[in-house]
Amino acid sequence: MKRLILTTILLTSTLSPTLANEWSQWRGANRDGVAVDAKLPANLPEKLPEPLWKAYVGEGYSSPVVYKGQVFIMGNEGKQVETCLSFDGNTGKPLWRKTHSCTFEPPDARAGKGPNSTPTVDRDRVYMLGLGGYFSCIEIKTGNVLWSHDLASEFWGVVKSEDGMDAWFPVCGASASPLVDGNQVILPVGGKKAGCIVAFDRRTGKIVWKALDERSSYASPLFANIAGERELVAFTGTRMVGLTHSDHKLLWEHPFTALFEQTIISPVVWKDQVVIAGEAKPTICLKVNKEDDKTSTSVAWQNADLSAYMVTPVLAKDHLFGMDQRSGRLVCVDMETGKTKWTSSRLIGGLGYVSLLIANNRIFALTTSGDLNVFEVNTEKCVPIVKWKPAGEGFNWAHLTVSGSRIYVKDKANLYCYELGK
Fold first, then answer.
1. Contact criterion met (CB below 8 Å) for 231 and 245
2. HEC per residue, the chain
3. What is the pLDDT of residue 346?
4. Cβ 372 vs Cβ 364: under 8 Å
5. In the chain, is it the N or the C terminus that has fewer CB atoms within a 10 Å radius of its CB?
6. Residue 344 half-sphere exposure, CB side, CA atoms within 13 Å?
7. How does pLDDT run across 67-100, given as a tens digit for each residue?
8. CA–CA separation, 31 vs 15, rounded Å?
9. Binning pLDDT at 50, 70 and 90, where does residue 279 land?
10. What is the pLDDT of residue 191?
11. Mean pLDDT across the stretch 154-180?
12. What is the pTM of this model?
């Protein structure tokens, strides 16, 4: 019996981190843009190999997630039909496909037809959010929908703005990615009826709690330990907030008024500091202070060289690496001082998008035009390693994914898997 218990403990300690470290949600296992399970070769090839597999997904900016040999993503097949898809990670063979109607169209065509949210996988379930607010819980093995919500019909439309638009729904559609906390699934919804941030029971889909009666954000929330307390850190449509984990009360806030209330980037947390950025504004680093039972914030620094409108920066070696939307350059910022350490050559132009992640001590930057740039994580100077041109149409707004020795790239309509381990 003792041997059996010891074996079980060893297996659990060996397997659990591997499963937990997969790219199973928006921006990876910890929502920080770091591929913690990456096993890419030390010497990267000058050119990418031919794709291991290719699969049709449809339009949209949803990015792939990887869990237990399955790949999950959302797409838009046209004719007002969104799809939830699962593929075999080794072959690209479709495992299941679920569809739902989506009649919502954003007022700005540049926002895309969606879906824009990235799925979140937790244990035996995957959670997916459509552009028009169709929120579903799906069993990963069978593709069966276990529960769902139509956020538009259930919670939105209560209050209209002067132009006739919903006063709480994000103007260009729901884009945040679900966050799992134990047996709760947390999602920005918005409005007085549902609340800006809502927690659903993962088993039944029933609302467990809600917080803040205001417009929700495009940005995806996260949990972090700040100033000795576990907090939910999230953008609303008008401010960055910290909520207590225990009772979801407002701990602190920092106003952030962006054009059309487009709060987009995910929070970036370093020690007791939170990075805020967006819409042609300097990057702001907030210091969260706690004294006795009072929590307050102060601005630790601002950096005008980095205006991260849509691109969430990544952290490494106590430095922030982000994309300045105005210059189209990668910028390295010292988190202690807020000073710029270096800038790269121009990677993008206009309102182009870049998805950033860190894997095996290297920065990967996939541009809208389909260039995949790789840099050293170097805090003193910009050191390019390689520049790849993945297959596809080159319209890459979906976030890059790295898991194990594989890289996943989504172009306008197709998903490509590259194997670098061989």
1. yes
2. CHHHHHHHHHHHHHHHHHHHCCCCCCCCCCCCCECCCCCCCCCCCCCCCCCCEEEECCECCCCCEEECCEEEEEEEEECCEEEEEEEECCCCCEEEEEEEECCCCCCCHHHCCCCCCCCEEECCEEEEECCCCEEEEEECCCCCEEEEEEHHHHHCCCCECCCCCECCCCCCCCCCCCEEECCEEEEECCCCCCCCEEEEECCCCCEEEEECCCCCCCCCCEEEEECCEEEEEEECCCEEEEEECCCCCEEEEEECCCHHHCCCCCCEEECCEEEECCCCCCEEEEEEEEECCEEEEEEEEEECCCCCCCCCCEEECCEEEEEECCCCEEEEEECCCCCEEEEEEECCCCCCCEEEEEECCEEEEEECCCCEEEEECCCCCCCEEEEECCCCCCCCCCCCEEECCEEEEECCCEEEEEECCC
3. 96
4. yes
5. N
6. 26
7. 999 999 999 999 999 999 999 999 999 999 999 9
8. 21
9. confident
10. 79
11. 82
12. 0.93
Question: b or e along 234-262 (b: 16 or more beta carbons within 10 Å of the residue's beta carbon)?
Answer: bbbbbbbbbbeeeebeebbbbebebeebb
Split at pLDDT 50, 70, 90, the class of 395 is confident
Cα separations in angstroms, 211 against 28, 194, 223, 252: 25, 8, 15, 13
In contact, 10 and 4? CB cutoff 8 Å = no
Q: Over the Cα atoms of the chain, what is R_g? A: 21
What would the pLDDT profile of 30-72 be if each residue is shown by its tens digit? Answer: 999 999 999 999 999 999 999 999 999 999 999 999 999 999 9
pLDDT value for 344: 97
CA-CA distance, 108 to 114, in Å (whole number)? 12
Distance CA 269, CA 81 (A): 37
pLDDT classification of 138: cutoffs 50, 70, 90? very high
pLDDT at residue 326 is higher than 60: yes
C-alpha 404/C-alpha 37 separation (Å) is: 5
Q: Provide the residue type at 322 as one letter.
A: G
Q: Which residue has the higher pLDDT, 82 or 349?
A: 82
pLDDT at 165: 65
Tokens at 138, concatenated: 């799906």
Backbone angles phi, psi at 358, to 5 degrees: -120, 130
d(CA 57, CA 77): 8
Give me the residues paired with residue 407 across strands: 402, 418
CA distances in angstroms from 329 to 127, 261, 305, 349, listed in the order given:
34, 25, 10, 9
